[in-house]
Each structure stands twice: as C-alpha cells, then as structure tokens.
Amino acid sequence: MPSEYPATALELRSTLTDDGVVRLAIRRTDVADPADDQVVVRVEAAPINPSDLGMMFAGGDPSAGLPAGDGIHDAVAVPVTEAAVAAQRARLGKPMPVGNEGGGVVVAAGSSPGAQALLGKTVGFLSGNAYAQYRTLNVSQCLPMADGTDPADAAAAFVNPLTALGMVETMRSEGHTALVHTVGASNLGLMLNRICIDDGVGLVNIVRKPEHVELLRSLGADHVVDSSAESFIDDLTDALRATGATIAFDAIGGGDLASILLSRMEKVAGEQAGEFSRYGSDTHKQVYIYGGLDRGPTTLRRDFGMSWGLGGWLLTPFLIKIGQDAADRLRQRVADEITTTFASTYGTRLSLADAVDPSQVARYARMATGDKALVTPQA
Amino acid sequence: MPSEYPATALELRSTLTDDGVVRLAIRRTDVADPADDQVVVRVEAAPINPSDLGMMFAGGDPSAGLPAGDGIHDAVAVPVTEAAVAAQRARLGKPMPVGNEGGGVVVAAGSSPGAQALLGKTVGFLSGNAYAQYRTLNVSQCLPMADGTDPADAAAAFVNPLTALGMVETMRSEGHTALVHTVGASNLGLMLNRICIDDGVGLVNIVRKPEHVELLRSLGADHVVDSSAESFIDDLTDALRATGATIAFDAIGGGDLASILLSRMEKVAGEQAGEFSRYGSDTHKQVYIYGGLDRGPTTLRRDFGMSWGLGGWLLTPFLIKIGQDAADRLRQRVADEITTTFASTYGTRLSLADAVDPSQVARYARMATGDKALVTPQA
Prior knowledge:
The structure is a homodimer of 379-residue chains.
Chain A: E1 8-17, E2 21-30, E3 38-47, H1 50-57, E4 66-67, E5 75-79, H2 82-87, E6 96-97, E7 101-109, H3 113-116, E8 122-126, E9 134-138, E10 142-144, H4 159-173, E11 178-181, H5 187-199, E12 202-207, H6 210-218, E13 223-226, H7 232-243, E14 247-250, E15 253-255, H8 257-272, E16 285-289, E17 294-300, E18 308-312, H9 315-336, E19 348-350, H10 352-355, H11 358-364, E20 373-375
Parallel strand pairs in A: 11-12, 11-14, 12-13, 14-16, 15-17, 16-18, 19-20
Antiparallel strand pairs in A: 1-2, 1-6, 2-5, 3-7, 3-9, 3-20, 4-5, 7-8, 8-10
Helix pairs in contact in A: 4-5, 4-9, 7-8
C-alpha cells in the first residue's frame, strides 16, 4: 500500500433532516486506495459555485445558519422550509457529498498507464465531492494541467469553463450565429466574453448594474446592455439586431426576462421577414435557463410567434450528448488556457472550518459578483 | 383556354386598416389558368379552423362585427385594438387571403402528368386561400382522394389530420413513448384518440368538462382527465404514471397548465429515479404549445428539474423538417382513412355570404366544441 496519502482525511457532507434543518458538517472519512484506473488527489482548492449551493443548503436560508458542531468537528445548521423538505425526500437523512469540482496534485496512482501518467501532476477534477482533503478519483474525472500550474488555478476547470464553451457549442450545433448571456459580469460571463472575442462570435452581455457595463467594455465586449437602465428594451433590441443573436442562456430564470428576450428576437426577425405571417417569423428563437438566481415563476407573454423554445440547460447531459471526442476537445482547450481564457478570481479563501462558520456561510452564499469563495481543504 | 371554369369567381379577403378595423369581405377575383404543374379546383367545402381565425379577424372581437358591404358584395367589419394593429403592421391595408384548407373537384389541369392525373378527382388541398369558389393550385398542394369521396369529407385533410399525426411522429422522433393532449374533445383530439388506439400509443386526454370525459371514454379512450375536477392534479399524475407520457401538446397556451404538466411528469420520473439529484430527474419532459385558446401569459413555476423544454409547435415547419417522403406517407394515410380516422363533424354549413354575416361570425368564432363551421362556397 502506498504511503503518500493518509488513511483518513476530512471532508464536508450535507444532511437534510425531516425537522427542517440541513446540516453542513466536517467529518472524517476513509481515503480509498486507488483501483487500477484511479488516482488519489490531494485537494488544494475547490470553488463554491452557485451550482454547489443547492446541495450544500438544500434551498434553505444560509443567512440564518447557526453553529451545530458535535464537539469533535464543526458544523453549521440552516433552516429549510417544509415545502423544500418535501421536494427533496430522496436525500432525507443521507449525508450528501458536496463540491462539484476542485484542483489538486496526484499523490498516488493505480497500475493502468493512464493513472500512472498522472502521478505528480496538477489536475482539475469533477467529482461532486470536492470539499475534502483527499479524493480517490477515476482517471476520466481528472484534467491534467501543464507542469507548473498552481492547483488553485486548476480548481475551476470544469463547471464554468465547460459551461461557457458548451453555450457556444450549443449555439453552433443548433444553427445560431450569436448568443445572449444574461449574467455578463459573472466569472462565467467573463470567460464567455473572452471565448467569444477569441472565436469571433457575437455576444450580447446583459448585466444588472451600470458599473458592470464599464467592466465588460474595458474587457473588450462590444455589446453590453444594462437591464436596470430605462432604455433596456431598446438597447437590447439594438444589440440583437447588431449581432443577429437568436439564442440566449439565462441564469436568472424567474420573471419576464426570457419572455422579453424571445419577444425582442422576434421583433428583429420580423423586421427582416418579407411576408406577413400570423404565426410570426420562421426564425427559431431559443432561451435556455441554466440557473435560478430568481426562484420565482417564469412568465411568458407569447408575443413572439410560434418558432421558439425555452428549456433547461445542464452541463452533464450536454457533455454526454456531444460525445467523448468533442468533450475531450473542450477539456483540452480548458487545460491549455486555464490561466488566461478560463482564469477565475476569488474574493475569499476558506478552510473547511471557515466553510461551516455561520458568518462565512452567510457571506459566500450571497454569491455577490466579485466575491466568489475558494475552499482550501489543506489550510 | 379550357372552359370548365369561369374567368372570375368569388372569394373572401381580410383587410386590416390603421383605424382599428378588420374587414372580411366577399370580392370577385380572376381564376388563373393552370400552369403545367397546376390544376383548377372547384372548391366545394372549407372548414373554419381555430388557426384560420387569426388571419380572418386579426385578433379583433368577432362578437362585435357589423355589416360593411360596399353595395355590390357583402362584408363584415370587426374592431381590433390598437396594440393588435401595431403587432400586425406587415398586413396593414393588404387584402389577405383566408382559409388554410379545403376540398373540391379538379375541373382543369396543366400539361404535366401529375396534373393530368388529378383531372376529375376529388382532392383536399392546403392553400391559405381556400374560402373561394375556384382556386388554381400546384399539384403538390393537393391530396387526391379515393373515387367516390364526398368533397366535403376531403375539406379537412390537412390541418387537423396532419397535426394529429405530427404529434405522434414528434413524440416518436424525440424519444417519448406516450403523449398528453390538452383539448381531448376537439375534432383534433378525437382524431388523435383514434390514431393512438390504432397505433397502440398511450394517450392522456385532458378535457375541460365532465361530459367530455364520457364522450372520450365512449370512443375507447383509456385515460381521460377533467381539468375542472377537484382531483385533476392527482388524476393527471395517475394517468402520466400509467402511460409514461413525457411529452404534451397544448392548445390552451396561457395559464399554468404547461407548468403543471412538467411538474407532474417530473414527479413520476422522480418516483422511478434511483439517486437524488438536485437538478431533478434525467427524464426529458417536453410541452409544445400549438394553439392559444387562452391568450394570457404562460406561467412556469420551474419545480420540475432541469431536463425540460417548452416551445411552439407548428405544422408547416414540422412537415419541412421530416422531409418529403415522410410527409407523403402521412398524407397518404390521411387520404386512405379520410372517412374513418380523420373524419370531421360540423355544426353548421355557411355560404360565402353567411361567412360574412355578423350573427354567423359571432357564432362560428366562438369555436364551441361540436359547433365547427364548414364554408361551402358554391352555395
């Protein structure tokens, strides 16, 4: 048995119980020996993405967390409404692993050539249990980085980079030539902006604050529209006309933004259509909801003809759909450009103990733009 | 020049003007001589489908029609709101042809073998200008019926039959095995019910009145759910569970029916899923809106995971998408089963003069189940 990793290590788990509480706790767990095609990664960093919060806090209110340690390890308890508990019966009482992705160093490897090739490498990984000191992972879950890469830079190599690339790939594969992104100033939005500049793809960035217009413009974005401005609808229409964007990716979800997007795309399409049709233009207009910053209902006024679609968009089914070769191509681009196109910035770094500290929880769960948290489990 | 058709004949046209009035009028028009691949059809019958009303009355209020003849020909004038006028600028002042489909007898034909083969035949046709005494049409617009078919039976061979078949084809091509239809007791719904019984496809019929439950059951439907019943949600869930339906076609459009459908499909999918996922089940759930009986906004609560889609569904793009061969196969089935599977029933028959009579307009525009109107232009 190799000795480069301990027999046990610390991890975070989230347990929802029937009494309306979700408990995010540090606990000690076994570090499994690697099978032939596995490696053991010493986890150096793992980001807290919006997509992690649901599993961590089960839709509860992270601003109302209280200390809930058991005397040995720290924990935080967060209240969850009865309705949210009812919607998540399948996880009741089960300590769920948390942390979609992370970065670290491969400290042990199984016997397969693929595993051996990773020994000593810095890797990013996608695992669903990244908030831990050590993880035993399949080779296929790891993305090796160039020698000398800081493991912290490798920590966010999957969710945001592949989602941003996936948006552009989806745009192309569904026959569109430009796209809209509704949270332009997010880490994901900044990546998407860099990809679109590099690839010459038209991008309409929607932001929610005037200062974010300036930020994106300073980063070379041609089309930035502020949804808090009185001229939003006209500005959006102009940007859609200029780019020809007929697909949008929306992280907000609730409210009437999807309806506005479809309606304005249809307006531009109608300007270009020759003949009148009571079914609207032939131009297919698509909005994908990939997040839910606004959990309220989505309202569609259906003033956009009959050629339209709205749907959920999720990374994993997208990667399965495009197949291994195409997914590998995207992953390789991420590895090659991890410190440029796909660089992330963090507002705070947290030890595992910090990650279950109620005041830290209240802060990082707000997901304020520019204040993203990075968990550093060795700290 | 052949003499089997007159030089001029009567037709209906609909003209929207800037003063907020749409005028549906009889007028005299030339009957064009057929080109090589064309035929002249003496139109015997043409149904008024829900999809015809938009072009006829431009979203105005058909219950408020007034006589508006010009002294030679009759017409009806219907008020249209300013917003509806603004949304239809492209048709302002243009006399738009009306009537998506009809049936008649081919009385003259061009020189091509395809055209000659239709001479004397009863045909159904799709033209967008069917409310007329004679029409010169391309061979490809016509569907020849077996000898002895009543032209009235051929009048509704396209819109409802191909839409019903298109729903089943779409269901299959997108990987679903059973479907939901939200207006089960409509002419279209009854056709779909017959198709699904013949083809062994699971169908959940949603109806809005208790008596329609009885009607559909008497016609052999296994799953009929009354949306006016207090037990609607549970009944729907049971029917979804029994059929495994994960796609729905909705003619209502507004309100929360699409949201309820997606949510209940997800509930059933979740019962079958093994592992908990905060993104919901992997089962793709789809609702297509193909009509707008409720013009109000569509509200989605998004309590159905991330694997879902909502979109518009329209017959013509569907037929283009499946290609000529597949479309021909569907058309042939319609011709073969026009008096059985695809039979329509009508509550009233109207001459062209009746069709612009304000009291008749108010009646047929209500589109009451069982009171469908058939225009008979030779009457």
